[in-house]
Amino acid sequence: MRRVAIAATGPVAVDAALGAVRAGGNAVDAALAAIMVAMTTEPGIVSPMGGAFISIWPVDGEPEVIDGNVEMPGRGLPEDTFGGGLLEFSITYGGGITVYAGPGSVAIPGAFAAMGLAHERHGAGEWSRVLHDAIKAARTGFHVGAAAASYLALAGDTIFGWDDETRTALTTRHGGPLAAGDRLVSPDLADSLTVLAEKGWRDAYTGEIGRALAADSRARGGLITEEDLAAYEAVVRKPLRMSVGDWDLATNPPPSVGGPMLAVMLGELVARGGTDWRDVIEVQKHVLTYRSDVHDFSQNLEEDGYRLLEDVRAKGIAGLTTSSSTAHVSAVDSDGLACAITASSGYGAGATIPGTGLMLNNCLGEPELNRLGLHALAPGTRLASNMAPSVARAPDGRVMAIGTPGADRITTALMQVLARHCLLDVDMGEAISRPRAHVRVVRGEPTRVDYERDAEIAAVVTALGMPGLEHEPHSMYFGGVGAASRSASGVLSAAGDPRREAATGVA
Q: Is the same domain home to 223 and 264?
């Protein structure tokens, strides 16, 4: 009987993955079932009406990435529609950020398309089984986790407070904020997911759910049209490949920004032969400054992504000219199939499609993904993304799936964990647990080093003469890496991150 190792967002997601395998599924079915539960049981953190990237390495084939990232909507709309429907909010998350929510912040969702295509190409079980546990959780209720409660405490009165349906769903019956452990029931969401289980994932685009989304967007001044939803397609892409120690690593390619940045940072650490804090911080600073100057303002992310990789191959990083919330699941099964999924709905639009329980993304309202300006892209353009779900193989038969949530900390977290594990042979659990640093580069603001309390990191930051901001150990700000693996002898294992509610399972 097939077995699986899973690293997910909580015990309900892990149970869903294991149940999918017991029902005849494989690592892809397991990862899909787990991420679907995460999208259901982590309100505010992630929603199925966002985007997702799925990296898969088949047992006897080449790796691939299924790009289900969000797109700019607005096909067929008059020009004066753009620029409206946005609500500005400031929240204290990550030291303070300003985001835009509201109907005009909603991008075309791609997660269901990516999940559906991944299941059609690589799943072994029934599609309905992928949604089974998510439906059950929404129907019978689930306990709100600490991560969701923490974020809702920061954004419940702002982002999630302007829409009556959303506010009602995310508060107690007395009108207070949800706390960790509170039980939440969402019958409307259960009904919507049941429709998708019975009719298929395409109903989210061209069926009753898709029509409800387009009608709500039209009524409230959003940009999503039925034409946008009918035109959306998940894209199968050839991943970036690189050697990291003994490992052949495959990660998210352009037009994603996350994969190329991870590849360049890891490649430079390999070239330097060093993984001390000075190396880590200097490499991050150089590469992320390049990203801030070029990729954040790119008119063609795919072209600029491959140009970055070619420039680094030719000249090294010295040749580079410089001037939200997410959820992740990793699964590897006993056959050696690996699947890593990272999904995001941004900071949340605060809007719920009436009568469906489906909360919408605010990806058009994330300034870090829209440096060219809000609503500046042409309809049909994929937005930038930091997501970098990765899969890897070693010549001796080892297999790994890994990834993390964490916005622009995704690439820096994975850089540090993969360098420790693949180059220094540090146990994966220990590699995940060790302190992290992140160089924050934003045009027009002083570059600084965010880091978890650690005397060695603090000393290097001081020696480099850079401003630093110390965080508590194991801060959720630095992501939540999850990894699943199979050893050379066939032993399955998984490791989760103490920074964010996580659960692992092997069965």
A: no
Q: Could you write out the DSSP letters of every residue in 437-499?
A: EEEE--TTS--EEEEES-HHHHHHHHHTT--EEEE-TT-GGG---EEEEE-TTS-EEEE--TT
379 occurs within a structural domain: no
Spatial distance between the Cα atoms of 312 and 426, rounded to a whole number of angstroms: 27
Domain assignment present for 401:
yes
Residue 352 lies in a domain: yes
Average pLDDT, the chain: 91
Q: Are 366 and 305 in contact (CB under 8 A)?
A: no
- Counting the structural domains of the chain, the total is 2
From CA 184, how far away is CA 139, in angstroms rounded? 9
Q: Can you give the residue range of the structural domain that contains 423?
A: 245-325+386-497
Contacts of 164 (CB under 8 A, 6+ apart): none
174 and 217 fall within a common domain = yes
- Residue 320: which pLDDT band, with cuts at 50, 70 and 90? very low
Q: Give the pairing type, strands 448-452 and 390-393.
A: unpaired
Does the pTM surpass 0.70? The reply is: yes
Minimum mean pLDDT among 143-157, 288-302, 465-479: which range? 288-302
The DSSP result for 280-304, as a single string, is HHHHHHHHHHHHHHTGGG-S-HHHH
- Determine the Cα–Cα distance for residues 193 and 196; give it in Å rounded to an integer: 5
